[in-house]
Amino acid sequence: ELRIKYKESVRCEYITVQEYNSLTGESVQLDDRYTKLLIIQKHRKQKEREEELRSRGNSHQEVMNKRDSDMFMSINVEKLFDPDENGVVHKTVILQGQAGIGKSFTTQKIMSDWASGKIYSDFEYIFHIKCQQLNLISKNISVVDLILYNCQDLKPAVAQVLSCPEKILFIIDGFDELKFSLDVPQYSLCHDPHEQNTPQVTLSSLIRKAILSKAFLLITTRSTTLDKLTKVLKQPRYTEILGFSEEGMKEYFKNFFQNEQQALCAFNNVKKNEIVFTACFIPGVCWIVCTMLREKMDENTDIKQALTTTTTIFVYFVYTLLEHHCKSGSLPVQDILQRLGVLAESGIQEQQVLFEEKQIKNTFSDPSQAPSSFLNKIILKKGISNKTVFSFMHLSFQEFFAAFSYIMCDEQESEKKVTELLRESEDKGHLLSTIQFLFGLSNQETQDFINEKYNRSISPAVQSQLEGWIKERLKKVTEHTKGADLMAMLHCLYEIHDEDFVRGALESLTNIFLSYYPLKRTDCAVLSYCLQAWGDIERLDLQTCLLKPECLEVLIPGLHKCKDLK
Q: What residue stretches are annotated with the NACHT domain (predicted)?
């Protein structure tokens, strides 16, 4: 009877969740937000990691689809404690993933589905231990205390609960957030679930199986503390959340909007923007995008105008991580952003997405200060040993932080560095993505947000540099200019999203020659925006651009500006 009551209390507690922007008393149904995530069990090689970090758009989705296969041992949440390929049942499972990828959301879904009788029926009890809350406990506690923190009503049944430890699952959520280590001597561990000790000793005893050795454990963590865990765990099953596949994204939009037509409209709108579409593999980005789109729908605004720029989405996501996913007591926000920018910029210059440990030490004198909200720690096999490298969530985020570094330094240094960046981009095409983000950071609305939150903005001198640079490059455009170079310029104009600026920059351009350049949906959205902001143009040549019907649909609003269209 008490177990039934406990399940009911769990079901009531986890049936709803609060969102980042929820007001007091507001919540949403968990099932309206939770969507199946791609989880794999295989450690990837360096080449595979780089493939994930560098690919974009459809190529990135192809990579994610490859990961969702037997080759990478993909697994569903409900099968985490099933026998592995060798028939071994692992009593401890590690669920690893980067910030905002859905680890804690997954634990909430497990609690809700177990209480509703949908999964894990072999477990009579599941207890959710949040490491963030453990940090607040200063007195001695026992494992029994941890159980009763979940439900005081179980007090009369503690003996019965403990009598079948093999039917108990402890979910230890947010291991990376612990302020203490598990580095407790073996002789100091306790063996009695009633014995009270420091939170460090009690949790260490539970995780290291000194207490309730037959109980099951599910431990969620970021990659930064994975090596500490593996030192003390016996034969854990390793799993990693990679985020959403394309099907997962579609399902998330469907769940979020609760209206199939709106969901499809929103999803197709996002798919036009290759970088945002790629970043939506992270549930946190998906939530920001859907929230912005729904707000526009509620205002009866054309949602094509909702996702103004890629930079805006990235700025909001970084703010969300800093507000909700950064450890307290770490470096000041300005320091974090400045150092991440320096690291990102050095990597972009060298076309490097995996950083050596010494590079992290050079940027963050104390490597423990490197923010795990933005940097992933990766252990790779190298010969007879292992090596540690770090990466941003994706190359797009690295390019964004590289651009952000130019507004985190003083005005004089910023001007000097931007001059150098613009000059080097003439021969190094890979720098153009960073320049596009720099234009995005010059957007007035984005500048206002950054200034309000971080007291930083792009100086008028740098804005003048950007304007002069793009006008000069556009003046040199001829029918022999490469399509990729011209589109890169138009992407810069799209990111600043200022029609007066765009018209001024394009005044010298009367013809656009993009023939034989395969246009993506993203390119078509950018071209359409620039055409609409423009005056009339003499000629637009799109011959052999491999335009698909959905690309033409995106282009249509701007085509009437063209006198001669091929």
A: 91-408
